[in-house]
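User: For a benchmark we're assembling, each entry needs the component sequences followed by a predicted structure for the full assembly. Here are entry 17's components. Please fill in the structure.
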Amino acid sequence: MDNDLSPQDKKDLDKFIKFFALKTVQVIVQARLGEKICSSSSSSPTGSDWFNLAIKDIPEVTHEAKKALAGQLPGIGRSMCVEISLKTSEGDSMELETWCLEMNEKCDKDIKVSYTVYNRLSLLLKSLLAITRVTPAYKLSRKQGHDYVILYRIYFGEVQLAGLGEGFQTVRVGLVGTPTGTITLSCAYRTNLAFMSTRQFERTGPIMGIIIDHFVERPFPNTGHMHACDYRATGEEDGVGYPGVEDSQEVCTTSFSTSPPTQLCSSRLSYQPPMPGAADLCYPAALNSTNPHQAEHGRVSSCPPADPGHHLSGSPSTGEDAETLSRSGEAKTACRPEALETTFTRKVGAFVNKPSTQVTTTGLDLPFAAFAPRALNSEENDPMVHPPESPTTASPLHGSLHSQDSVDSAGQTQDDFVMVDFKPAFSKDDLLPMDLGTFYREFQNPPQLSSLSIDVSAQSMAEDLDSLPEKLAIYEKNIDEFDAFVDTLQ
Amino acid sequence: MNCRSEVLEVSVEGRQVDEAMLALLHTILLHRSTGKFHYKKEGTYSIGTVGTQDIDCDFIDFTFVRVSSEELDRAIRKAVGEFKEALSNSGSDGMGQISLEFYQKKKSRWPFSDECIPWEVWSIKVNVVNLANEQERQICREKVGEKLGEKVINIVEVISRHEYLPKMPTQSEVDNVFDTSLKDVQPYLYKITYQITDSLGTSVSTTMRRLIKDTLAL
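Assistant: Structure for entry 17:
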């Protein structure tokens, strides 16, 4: 097979494949760093930009890639894979996608290596740049920071897709035929994010800037090979602790089974921390009630997507001031939808003057969400859930704002997770805590305006008649004005 | 030769038209631009480097990658702006199509002007919807973002078929294949045209205008 290929061509081809593999890894990892990537075009060729593309080389990433390759090249049966996963501050992790650079046996003997193959590899890298911004993990990675980080792992050999859960999708980035085989680049990504509703990843720290650092990091077998897609800081260890989703999901399931409001309140109360202000106490307290098994992958949609209202049950009641602080302190989560956030603070309802300390929820308090046009919303916005009485609504709910987007994009096939972040009028009203129906009934028959009502007893006919001559005199005086007015009407 | 033609369809809200068009057109141009060619004496050439940039959309939950070239961006924005204006000036129907055509010039003898032979045409059909409330707009943000993602995947899939591309030209022919007027990148020769569909469904085409313009311009 290689007889047809000249030694120089073979050497070139190997070099191209090697650098293509390294650049592929760079593009993928850089796309998951959580920030926008920008590089400049240069009209004068420097000779060091492989495939005529300005792709930076992060040394650590190159090092990891070379280590994984260990001197070999991707070939038939030897694929190079980049696995992207998400790790929360509690140590839970979940594989999001796996990018595979593979080679199959279909050869294209006639193709010119130094020219056509090179240009097609360049085109494939451009396609990779475009596709890396399209898969669901991109949005998640742009919002990483406090609550979770994105990790990557490079391995060589057989492709392992089992960790992506059921129903994962595959997108092919492209393929390039070479004389020794066809290079294919594809991505398999998880669609089932049911285990952890992504909203919880946007929850900000529950308190006043205290960093909870005594959470136990659960050891995961692959963690040793995992690397953070974050070169600004070691994001992982900064994780602020807060009750895991397991608690809230448990609350979810139990409270939704019967008449929700009372259940909800009582179960929420059970999570009130013993000492307000002691967020660190709160965390372990909540953890104790966690069912460790719920941390497993594939905890599925039997539990409706973690209603944000229940997240807040686990948050410390010191929430009030904390939320505002933690909201502002959320800077590290590179939250793109600032527009959303401002929308949130502005639009709380048609006539609400929201006190700054009180945080209103989004997905929680939509009593009429069930009647919203999209049936999809009814799952997450339990119509029976009332706004919380105590202002312990926590920032996790804010988080829901940001995560809505990501979940929506991820939940393509999962109807459960199309969460829409909107605030219809009357949804939450701090001044008049009532729902739309009550409001309507109450104000359906307002009293008449006093200026419009004729109070018979106050005025008699005689008085009317007496005032007539005066009125007539005035009108006669202004007769010209009236005439002019009539003229304009004609 | 046969001209390859691809059609993409999107439904967007009025304020999303610009960004949706930019996203798709830039994605296509990313794949159809190279670095600047520098011809050397022996007839060989070297190619400059193309940089890329991530652009976040304001009205759509989407990020796209474009070539780092302000000149190219300006040209595309101008064309999209004209399209958007034409769309809003048309009837309430809000349907139109913007086409990105890649062509090669073929020199003809005097008095005939050069021919423009298209080899790839991308048509993006746009349907502008009006939304009633904020809730719908929010849903639209996300849905359009997903749709654009699907379109990008479609574009990439077509590109990866590696069908006809013009041969790399010699120095004298480079202007027949590439647009060499930009200083930092070199896209294949392209033109952007649009058509607005009025409410009767007939297309008020700019084709005649384009034909005349081309004949005169060359």
